[in-house]
Amino acid sequence: MNEMFLLKMGEIVLKGLNRSTFEGRLHSNLNRRLKPYGKFKIRLLQSLVYVEPEEEDCDMDGAWEACGRVFGVAAMSRSRSCDKDMDAILRACKEYLGDGIAGAKSFKVESKRADKKFPLTSIQISQEIGGLLAEAYPETAVDVHNPDYTVYVEVREDRAYVHGPDQPGAGGLPTGVGGKTALLLSGGIDSPVAGYMMGKRGVELECIHFFSYPYTSERAKEKVLDLARLMARYCGRMTVHVVPFTKIQEAIRDNCPEEYFTLIMRRMMMRISEAMAEKLGCMSLTTGESLGQVASQTMQALMVTNAVCTLPVLRPLIGMDKEEIITVARKIGTMETSILPYEDCCTVFTPKHPKTRPSLSEIEKIEAALDVKALVSEAVEGVEPVYIRAGR
Ligand code: ATP
Ligand code: MG
Q1: How high does pLDDT run on average in the chain?
Q2: Measured between alpha carbons, how far is 120 from 342 in angstroms, rounded to an integer?
Q3: What is the pLDDT of residues 286-341, one digit of tens each?
Q4: Which sign does the torsion angle of CA 114, 119, 121, 122 carry?
Q5: Is it the case that residue 1 has pLDDT exceeding 60?
């Protein structure tokens, strides 16, 4: 029925010479994400992406939802295409947008004419279609300044398109234009949100999960994989590298004072993540830390954990309150899974009184009791990669 989607590109249009790289990424990301919903033709022209179904049985609702999670799209509208004549445009407005106009208190028509050969100017198109729609829907007032509903008419080179108000897209930059980061992914609320925020800036994710079987269960690992599947709806395909962490935690428990457990464990996580990042071609690490949220996220604690890394450690949640983080977790659909009550490796050997103001030299002295190098390389060798597709 000639329905299609118009997606407006966001920041991409501000790019100069590398704009075509950005557009190419957006194109291939959309192609991949829409595959499960049927065959679609995807064209990028100027600042718009045209997504048209090529088969009768395309799942338009599914595809629409999927487009809403593709980074690089700033705004989107479902629209109807029609021939480039005023009768066809009016008919398309009535058939496709009639309910929207009838349900509104007031409306206006806004037109754009990319095809300068079209005989009417955009103002003339708006006036004529607006007048005829006002006659057809006498209950809805015309209000050109502050309308309840706007009908958009776009006359482009090939066809005309009519649509209602835009809806916001996922924003950000197309996945893949910003390099790769190694995300330390736990089963909590924060790290999936941190991954989403990096994904939004065009960054591909390699996830690293520290798994302490049997202290943490298979179910706890499944929960993390489920979180990755939910993130993949936005961030695209990714791999979760499951790192065996039991031996390290036991070594810490047996050789270090209790108040330092968490910090030394976090330093081990960072070292392993950095080794993994180098293998995987990641240029940074990302964590879900937020300043002051817990004892291991004070400024001193961050300094101490950061000291073992040379790669930049990105912490997109650093200045966010828990409430703000939860709002994003709900929006991206990870919250419900995050709060399922499975234990995390951090909770297994939690000290009763963790150090909040650790000193680096103290920690380094305590760590001398561990064979850090051997523990790190053994963990890296034992990694199990789990591939996560860009899901539905
Ligand atoms: P989250 O909600 O992300 O678990 P948190 O508030 O529970 O965060 P911590 O447990 O101190 O905070 O962890 C801080 C960060 O360390 C996490 O956001 C995550 O990036 C990383 N992390 C913690 N535990 C793990 C784990 N088992 N595997 C991988 N990364 C982890
Ligand atoms: Mg946690």
Answers
A1: 93
A2: 64
A3: 999 999 887 778 898 899 999 999 999 999 999 999 999 999 999 999 999 999 98
A4: negative
A5: no
pTM, 2 dp: 0.91
CA of 71 to the centre of ligand 2 (A): 26
What's the 362 CA to ligand 1 centre distance in angstroms? Answer: 23
DSSP string, 314-376: E-TTTT--HHHHHHHHHHHT-HHHHTS----HHHHT--SS--SS--HHHHHHHHTTS-HHHHH
Give the pLDDT mean for 371-383.
Answer: 97
Query: Could you read off the pLDDT of 248-272 as tens digits, one per residue?
Result: 999 999 999 999 999 999 999 999 9
Does ligand 1 come within 6 angstroms of the Cβ of 286?
no
Tokens for 355? 């150090």
Closest CA to 225 of 174, 199, 187: 187
Across 60-88, b (16+ Cβ under 10 Å) vs e yields beebbebbbbbbbbbebbbbbbbebebee
